[in-house]
Amino acid sequence: MLGTGHSDLNAKRTAWRLAAPVLLALGVVLLLGAPANAIFSGSTTISADGVMASQQRIATDSHDNALAVWTEGEGGARRVQAAFRPADGDFEALGPLSAEGGDADQPLVVFDEHDNALVVWTRYVTATGLGEVQAAFRPAGGTFGAPQTISAAEPGVGNFDPQVDIDESATVVWTRESEVGELSVQAAFRPKDGSFGAPQTLSGPGNASEPQVAVDERGNSLAVWTGDVAGAPAVESAFRARTGDWAAPVQVSPAGYDAFTPRVAFDGHSNAIAVWTADADGADPDDPNFIQAALRPEGGSFGAAERISADFGTAYEPQVAFDQRDNALVAWTRIDGASSVIEASFHAKDGGFEVPEMLTPIGEDAFEPRLAVDESAAVVWTQSTGSSVRVQGAFRRKGGTFGAAQTLSAPGEDSFEPTIAMDRRGNALAMWTHNVLPDFPVVEFAFRPRTGSFTEPGALSAPAPAGAFQPQIATDRWSNAIAVWTVDSDVTDDANPTWVEAAFAGAGGEFDPPVRLSNPSTNAFQPRVAFESDGDAVVTWTAEDAAGNQRVNAAFRPAGTPGFLAPTTLSPAGSDAFDPQVAAGHGTVVVWSRVAGANVSVEASVKPDNDSFLPVETVSDAGEDAYAPQVAVGKEGTAATTWYVGEGDGVKAAIGRTSPAGFGAAATLSTPGMAASEPQIAVDDRGNALALWTGGDRAFIQAAFRPRGAGFGASQDVATDNVYEPQVAFDESGNAIAAWTRVVSDIGEIETAFRPRGGTFGDPDPISDTGQGLDNFSPRIAADDSAAIVWTAQTASGFLRVQSAFRPKDGLFGSIQTLTDPLLYAFEPQVAVDERGNVRAVWTLTDQVDSNQPPAPSTIQSAFRPRI
Questions:
Q1: How does pLDDT run across 384-416, given as a tens digit for each residue?
Q2: What are phi and psi of 258, to 5 degrees?
Q3: Which of 66, 88, 70, 67 is nearest to 78 (CA)?
C-alpha cells in the first residue's frame, strides 16, 4: 500500500536530487560551463584510411549540395582531394584534383550562383620548392577539369596563400615572393564562361601579404591586404569593376595604428565590410590588439574605422560574413585574463555593430574561429582543455542570440583547424582535422540542420546558490508556452521556503523573465500548467497554509495579458492535499489527493470555460484510499480522471464534463485481484478516452478505451515483461501513442506503441539507443499533429542526460537527439507539442547528485524544436 504522499519538507527538498532510482552516489563534483546541446550530428571521417589528411575546406551551392576539399599524403606528395555531398546525403569521393609530384597545399573551394565550383590551391614544385597557384573548375553537375596554373612562371619567384571568391565571375588573390624575398599581392580574374587572365600586381611599393578578396553579385571584386605604409603595417584595398581594371590601392586602416590580418565581405547590394586587427602602439609588445571595422557603401569608399571589440584584453583573428538579408557577423579571438575566448558582434542592415557576445566560457582557451551565415549563423573554433584540443561550435538562430557551445569532435586525440559552411536553408556543415594516433590525422565532418532539431538549451531559473526543480511545460494552439517549476533560493539552507515560478514564451521565441506565483513566505511545490482552447492558462501547485496544512492552489492567466491573476486556494482547509494535476481544453479541471478522515480521497475542481472554479467534489469512492490522480480534458469539454486505489491495488477512472455536471461514478479498469498502479489518461478532440496502467507487479502494461458517450471497454495488453512508467497521448487525428520503460538485463529501454483511431495497439517498438550502455527511464510524451518523447538516460559513469525522439505526422520516431551536456546531470524532463508540431522541452540540470555531498545548485533549462 502506498503512503499518503504528504512527506516532510526536507524529503521534499531533496527528492529532486534523487528522483531517478538508479542514481549512483558519485564522489565527484563537475564544475563545467553552460551545457551544450547535441545539435551537430556525430562526426564521420571522409578522408582515406591510413593517409595523412588536413587543410579541409567546404562550400555549399544554391541547392544545398556541398563540396569539400582537403590535402592527403605526406610531405613531398600531398595532393588536393575533393568529395561531393548531395543535399541531406553522404559524401562521395571525387578523387584528386591536383597532379602527382610536389606538394599541393592550402586548397579553397567556392560555388557561383549557378552552382559551378572553383577550387584553388598552392602547388610547390619539387625541383625548386617554389609555389605556383593553381585552379580547377567544375561545371554544375559535371566533373572537374584539368588544373590551370594562374600565377606567372617567373624564375626564382614563389606564389602562395591563394584566396578566392566567385559570383558569375571569379577573382583569386595571392602573395608573390620575388627572388630577393620581397612580398607583393597579385590577382587573376576569370570572367563568366571564360578562363583566368594574366596576373596583375595590386599592391604598391613595400612588402604586402595576407590578401583577401570578395566578389559581389555584379562581378565586381574588392581585395584587401596588409601593406607597408611608412614602415608600418596597414590595411590596404583595391577595387575592380567587372568590366574594368584594378584601381590604385588605398589605405583603409587609420594612420597611427599597426593593422594586419584583414578580412572583407560583400552583401547582396554591393556594400562591403572590412575587418582587421589593430595595434595602437606597435613598438610596445604589451599594448593590446583590438578589432576594427570599416564600411564601404556601393560605389563609394571605405569610411572611418570603428573599434568593435572590447576595451580590455587583446583581440585578433577576425572573420566576417554577410547573410542573405545583408546583416553581417564578425567573430574573433580575445584574450581575457589568463584565457582566450571567442566573441562575435552582429551588424544589422542599416544599423551598427552590437555589443560583442562571448561564445565560450571564461577560463577555457579558444582560438581559430571560423563562421558562416545565412538567415542563421554558426561559429566553430578550436578549444584547448590543457591536455588536448577539440573543435567546438555555437549556433545563432535568426533574430536570436548564440546558444551554448557544443563540442563537435569526438573525445580522444586532438582536433583542430575547423571550417564551416552554411547552405541556403540555414543548415550548417563543419569539418576539421582529427588526429587518430598512432595512425595519421583524418578529416572529419558533422552536419547541423537549421530546424527539425532542438535549439541549444537556455536557462530559465536563477543561477547558484538557488535550486530549481519539478519543471512542467504546456503550449497553446498558437505556439505560446508557459513553463513552471519550484525554486529554492539557497540549496544550502534548509530553513528558507520554496516557491513556484512561471515564465511565458511567445510563439517560437525566448522565455520572458520568470514571475513568482506562490506566497513567498510559505512553502510551495509540485507545480503543473495547462492551456485552455482559447489560450487562457491555469497553473496549480501545493502550498502550505497558515495552519501548516498542504493545500492545492491555482493561478489563472487570461490569454493576451502579461501576467497571472492572484492565486486562489482550491482544496478544503483542515487537512493535507497533494499531487495536484491540471488539464484543460474547453475549460479546466484540477484533481488532487486529500487526507479525508481515515482515508485519502481524490478530489476535483472544475472550471468551466470563461468562468471561475466550481466547488470541490469528491471523485473517488468512499472508504478507499486513492492516490496518484491523473486528468485529461478534451477540446469539447470531456474530462477523464484516473487514480490508484490502495486497498486492492486497483486502477479506477471517472468521466465528467468541464461544467457544473461534474464527474460521474467511478469505474474499475484493472482486473480485480491483480495488482495495478501508475495510471495514465488521455482524451482526444472528440471526447474519447484512453487509460493506461501497469499491472501484475510491473509485468505488463494494459489499456482500456472509452468511446464518447459509453463506458470503458475491456482491457488490452499493450506490453509485457518488466515494463513500467507508462505514458499516453492522442494526436489530433485520434490516434494514440504510448511510451514506457522496459528493463532488459538491468538496463532500461524506452519503447512505444501506436494505436490507430478505432483500432488497437500494435507491437512495441524500442526507440532508445541500446548500443551506448545507457540506462533509459522516465519517458514523457506529447502529441498533436506530430509527437515527441523525452526521457532520462544514465551513462555507465553515472552522468544523466536528457534525450528525445520526434515522430512526424503519419511517420515513425526518428533518430535520438541528446539535449544536454553528457558530463552533467540532467533529469526530470517534460515535453509539450503545439498544434503546429513545434516542440518545447524542459528539464532540471545540476553538476552533481551525490547524496553524500552538500546540496548542489540546479537550474531549469528549456529547448525548442521547430516542426520542420
A1: 987 889 999 988 877 777 877 888 887 667 899
A2: -80, 135
A3: 70
Reading the block at residue 651, the C-alpha cell is 486502477
- The residues near 685 (Cβ < 8 Å, ≥ 6 apart) are 634, 635, 636, 730, 732, 734
Q: How far apart are the first and last CA of the chain?
A: 46
HSE value, Cβ hemisphere, 13 Å, CA-based, for 306: 16
Q: What is the mean predicted confidence (pLDDT) over 154-168?
A: 94
The grid coordinates of residue 55 equal: 587543410
Over residues 722-750, the pLDDT tens digits come to 999 999 999 999 999 999 999 998 899 99
Q: Assess contact for 118 and 164: CB atoms under 8 A.
A: yes
Encode 420-451 in three state secondary structure.
EEECCCCCEEEEEEEECCCCCEEEEEEEECCC
pLDDT at residue 561 greater than cutoff 50: yes
Q: What percent of the chain has pLDDT over 70?
A: 92
DSSP annotation of 41: P
Q: For residue 630, which of 690, 713, 549 has the smallest C-alpha distance?
A: 690
Instruction: Quickly tell me which residue has 590596404 as its cell.
Output: 236
For 94: left if phi > 0, alpha if psi spans -120 to 50, otherwise beta; the answer is alpha
Phi, psi of 677 (to 5 degrees): -160, -170
Torsion sign, CA atoms 226, 228, 229, 231: positive
Look-up of cell digits 514523457? 780
Q: Dump strand ranges (E) for 100-157.
A: 103-111, 117-124, 131-138, 148-149
Q: Round to whole Å and give the CA distance between 249 and 311.
A: 30
